[in-house]
Amino acid sequence: MAGERSDVAAGVFVAGLLVLLVSLVKGWWLLVLLAAAVMVGTVVATARRRRTGPDPDVTLRPGGEGRPWKRK
Predict the structure, then answer these.
(1) Residue-level pLDDT at 7
(2) Which keywords does the record carry (predicted)?
């Protein structure tokens, strides 16, 4: 499910990039700002999702009470 979200975010970013390039060539400055805002928004949204996501199941640190080899 997370892969699908990042694919959608990448698609929105590329669409924003395409609109940005076309609007720069045509000289439509309002559309340039809108496309830039969409691109920044997708980057921020994906960065926030990764940062606030669930803790990983596997850590690289040894030890801890939940480890099978630490049980008495």
Answers:
(1) 77
(2) Membrane, Transmembrane, Transmembrane helix
**How far, in Å, CA of 37 to CA of 44, rounded?**
10
- Nearest-angstrom CA–CA distance, 26 and 18: 12
Q: How far is CA 53 from CA 46, 47, 57, in A?
A: 10, 10, 12
Torsion sign (Cα): 68, 70, 71, 72: positive
Exposed (0-12), middle (13-18) or buried (19+): which is 34, by Cβ within 10 Å?
A: middle
Instruction: Give pTM, 2 decimals.
Output: 0.56
Q: Residue 25, Cβ neighbours under 10 Å: how many?
A: 8
Task: Please state, as a whole number, how many other Cβ atoms lie within 10 Å of the Cβ of residue 16.
Answer: 20
